[in-house]
Amino acid sequence: MAQAAGTTRGWGGGAMLALVPAAGLRLLCLGAHADDIEIGAGGTLLRWLREGRVAAVHWVVWAATEERAREAAASAALFLAAAPGPVEATVTVHRFADGSLAAERAVIRQHYEQLKQFEPNLILTHYQHDLHQDHRLVSELTWNTFRNHLILEYEIPKYDGDLGNPAAFVDLPAEVLAEKLRLLQTAFPTQAGKHWYDDETFRALPRLRGIQSATRYAEAFHLRKVLLG
User: Fold this and answer.
1) Mean pLDDT of successive 10-residue stretches along the chain, which has 229 residues
2) Would the pTM count as exceeding 0.70?
3) Burial code of 70-83, b = ≥16 C-beta within 10 A, e = fewer?
């Protein structure tokens, strides 16, 4: 993936080295469940789409009931609509059972092999040390399948308290974060009754990651390997 190096002005007035993705991104977005991609990387996707950096997206959700599958497909369409021009987009929502992806590992592995045909140059997936078993499997199979790709692992806040110390950040303008929060509430009405699913949660983590990256708000990613050429 071509990138341009430069500096970005930090919230506190300093300058931080930044690697800015060039246009032509082919994004493979992988989420164990409906809303995982949006919670972990929704702001990043909105920003890159709005800036015209994305040429193609393959959006994959692995576990969903019929109701949640409808939410996932509708949400993907809402986020992808942020692009100012046409984007090659494929949204695939599988119907594997929530919490039991490991039981379907062999079948899911075959689906992963088929994803190679998309030829992504950047992959968004779950964090390898996420304490949800479905999340860990998605991350593991991502690395098993894509051996020569740039992979960013997003984070999902949850009861388990498994947030790590990520080292890669995407600066989110306030209006981008606000749009992410609006879409999360619009697209997933089945989650509205959950005590953690609210704007406070989804603003708090980007604010914390903003402090770490000398910005106001940011989404954070675990980055295991990067080749600087």
Assistant:
1) 52 66 94 98 98 98 98 98 97 97 98 98 97 98 96 96 96 98 98 95 98 97 92
2) yes
3) ebbbebbebbbebb
